[in-house]
């Protein structure tokens, strides 16, 4: 298979290896292997090139050679092929822990959709994921251009899409002023909701085309967006109001940066974005489940009190929060355990019910949980869908 990575990467080293599954090429950049390492017979390799150097971070962009997909011969169909799952924000926390479980199981190829390419590669390597079972494709959810570019790159890879996991998020609890995405949307809702909204709308076509027995779109929600719980009642509480700020474009110039039109509050913006995630999952279910058979689901994986999500919180919070959750609320869950839970929602053959918000009890047994009144408001979900379509350029 003709590959061009060596010519694209000025300081890359490319080697061909004889593997169990045939000849494949490994590319490294500054000594770090990049994603050209899947089974040659099963996946079409991506070639990679560095794109830009921004904020001291090297961003890598994937491009592809012309795809030539090796389809299974009819008689091979009896054995289930490897599933292909895209996980956004798989470079740390829950996303990485889930990627690790799935890639290590052996029957999944995980596409890590990450904004920091090298961080993702390093994280995957450090966590011991078998290199033929994962790939990294650059995705910055805070830019709709990047979302579209990701979809293009993914399609050119030739891999089918069997499961999409919308996991990435930012939480800016200490920000005094709002910050914005490339298109000028408040950053938390812009990234956590609007970026994922465009991504999942575009990739729905790819999910539809997959011949995998159980196709799923999973969007990570949270207890803190649900005001029917104690955790959801810690101020500031989620509240989308009549969506007037969202309808105005969340730009903080001629509209409020908050969905409900109020004053900026980073913690509230995050919780609002989680309500949007849970409403979006249900709206997908209502619009597309019957027609496509795709399972749409959300979940609260437990309080994973030590992830990077809290990187912007004050140091005192980061010190006290884990013991508080472990010993007082008992809501604490390790990254490893949370990763197993999300991996279950991706791959467990019994969790095929659509329109469901999964939670786990103390014995780590999954159950269908109840969403708050606002997070299950059909009218709001429809309105959110329609405004979001306009904002991301789909309507
Ligand atoms: C604000 O910070 C930010 O300012 C704002 O920007 C936004 O981010 C907002 O909601 C987000 O948060 C709030 C600030 C004060 O939070 C903190 O910085 C720390 C809060 C969490 C830590 C609580 C400390 C409790 C001490 C725990 C010690 C654990 C050690 C256990 C060791 C055991 C060893 C055997 O947040 C506040 O809300 C003020 C909190 C005041 C402390 C109250 C004490 C907590 C007691 C609560 C008991 C409730 C029990 C509930 C149990 C429920 C069981 C079902
Ligand atoms: P982390 O911060 O560890 O993970 C978030 C991931 O999102 C990181 O990989 C981060 O990338 C990525 N990300 C952030 N912004 C972007 C962007 N613009 N484009 C692409 N990727 C981006 O937090 P968690 O693992 O805790 O969070 C994962 C999910 O779990 C979130 O949806 C969160 O809301 C949810 N959740 C978390 C809970 C918890 O207690 N931690 C509880 C309930 C839900 P990078 O590595 O480059 O920073
Ligand atoms: Mg909360 C009953 C328990 C419970 C649970 C399961 C959580 C989860 N929290 C609980 C209770 C409380 N919290 C109580 C009683 C307090 C007051 C001390 C409290 C405070 C608190 C703060 C300040 N909790 C927080 C914060 C945050 O900044 C976190 C947040 O809101 O992020 C948006 C948070 C969280 N509590 C949780 C969970 C899961 C979070 C964080 C992550 C998330 O929803 O994604």
From TrEMBL:
The keyword Plastid applies. One of its GO terms (molecular function) is protochlorophyllide reductase activity. Pathway: Porphyrin-containing compound metabolism; chlorophyll biosynthesis. Its EC number is 1.3.1.33. Its main location: plastid. It is an enzyme of class 1 (oxidoreductase). It catalyses: chlorophyllide a + NADP(+) = protochlorophyllide a + NADPH + H(+). It is found in: Plastid, Chloroplast. CDD domains: LPOR_like_SDR_c_like. InterPro entries: NAD(P)-bd_dom_sf, Prochl_reduct, SDR_fam. One of its GO terms (biological process) is photosynthesis. GO terms for cellular component: chloroplast. Keywords: Chlorophyll biosynthesis, Chloroplast, NADP, Oxidoreductase, Photosynthesis, Plastid, Transit peptide. The keyword Plastid applies. Pfam families: adh_short (PF00106). Belongs to the short-chain dehydrogenases/reductases (SDR) family. POR subfamily. PANTHER family: PROTOCHLOROPHYLLIDE REDUCTASE A, CHLOROPLASTIC, PROTOCHLOROPHYLLIDE REDUCTASE C, CHLOROPLASTIC. Phototransformation of protochlorophyllide (Pchlide) to chlorophyllide (Chlide). This is NADPH-protochlorophyllide oxidoreductase. It comes from Carnegiea gigantea.
